[in-house]
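> @MW can you paste both from yesterday?
MW: sure, first one:
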Amino acid sequence: QASRHHTISASGHSRKVTSVCVSADGKFVVSGSEDATIMVWLLNSGKHVCTLGGKTPLSVSYGVYSVSVTGDGRHVVSGSLDKTVHVWSLDSGECVRTLSGHIGSLCSVYVTADGKHVVSGSDDQNARVWSLSDSSAECVHTLSGHKSDVTSVCMAADGKHVISGSRDNSVRVWSLDSEYHRGKLTGDACHGDQAGAEARRALLDGRIIRMIGTQAILSFQGCDCTGA
C-alpha cells in the first residue's frame, strides 16, 4: 500500500524549525527556522520552491519564530528575535515592509483573512495590530493586559476579535477595531504554555470561541471557561 504521507525535507534549514504555515489554497508550506531563514515548499511533493531573504537576509542571531501567509498567497509575514515583523513578497523573495514597535522578541504573527491587518505577539507582554492597507504599515492598536510573554495570537472565525495566549496562564479576547478587552479566559485547561496552544485552536471555527454580550466563552472539550 502506498504511503499516505511524505516528509518535507528540512535539509535546507541549518537549525531547528520553529513555525510552519500552509497557504490558503493548500499548495504551499512555509517554514521558519532559528537559522533566520524562511523557506517555501510544495505541499504535495515536498519540493523546495524558494528561500525568502535574497538581498535582505535576517541576521542569523535573530531566528524566525513565527510565519503566516496572506490569504491571496502573495506575501509571507514573519516574526523574529530582532523585535520586528517582516512582510515578504513571494514573487520577488524580498522584504517589502518591516513593522517596528515591539520592545521584545516576536513569538507569534497572524494575518487576517482579508489581508488588511497583521496581529503580533511578543515577549514584551503585548499584542499589536498592524495595518497593511496602506504604505505606512503602522501599528493601529497595542493590546496590553497580559502579565507575561504573549506566545500565540490568532483571529476568531467572525473576523472581529483577536485571540491572544500568554505564559501568564490566560487567553484574552480583544476587539480587532479597537483596544477594547472583551474577556479574559482562564480555567484548568488554560495554564502555562498551553494557553498559547488553546489560542491557536480558537482559529478552527466559531463554535470554539463565541461572544455572548460582553462575556467571552471558550469551550475546552466540554469545559467552559468564562471571563469578563
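MW: second:
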Amino acid sequence: PTHPMRSMVLPLLCFSFARGFRTATPRMAHPSVVLEATGKHTATVIFLHGLGDSGHGWSPVFEEIRQPHIKYILPHAPSIAVTLNMGMRMPAWYDLYGLEEHDKEDELGLKRGAALVTDLVAKEVAAGIDPKRIILGGFSMGGALAIYTALTHPPLGGVLALSCWLPLRSHFPKDLKSTTTPIWMAHGESDMLVRLPAGQGSAAAIKAMGVPIDFKTYRQMGHSACDEEIRDMRFQLDKWLQ
C-alpha cells in the first residue's frame, strides 16, 4: 500500500509536476526540520523533499524509522517560479523545464542547490561527524539533487534516491569526484511522472561510471512511496550506519 504520509502530499506533487517553473530569487522562512539524535550523535541523514513539498512532508517517515544515534535534517526548498508549472511559485530546489531526458535543465539552479547541501554536510563534519557517516537522500527532484551532489562531492556514506533521475548527465564523468559513495535508487513501476525508464537509464549511467549502485522497483507504486519501500530504506540506512 502507498504510505499514508505520501498519499497526503502526492496530489500536490502530481499537480506541480504536471505544470512547471522559472528561476527566481529564492526565499526561505525556516531552513530545515531537524530531528536531533536522542542518544550519542554519530551519524546524519540529510533528505531533500520533492517539488511543492517541504521538510515537514517527510518528517513523519523519519519519525517512524529514526534511530537514536542519527540526526535527521530535512531542509525546505526556497519558493521559486517553476517553468514546468507555468511560472507558478512553489518550493523547488531548481527550475524544471520538462521531465524528459533531453529537456533543458537548470544547471545554475542545480549547482546552487548542491552548494546548499554541501554547506549542510560541512557543518556536520565541523561538528565532528565522519563524512562516511553522512547520508544524502531525496524524493523526485530532491533525489536528483542528492545524486548530483554526491557525485560531485568527496566520498560520503551513501545516497537514498527515491523516484528520481541523474541530472546534468552529459556533465559526467567529467564532473565526477567520487566513485565510492554507494547509491540506493528506488522507483515505482507505475510512476507516470518520472517514468521508470528515466530511473533505469540513470542507474545504468551511474553504474557505467564505476559507482556502486542498487536499483529496486516496486509494483503498483506511482510517483510516491509505499510501506515496503520505507522498510527497505530503513534497512539500507541501518546497513550503512550501524
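> thanks! The chain has six helices and ten strands.
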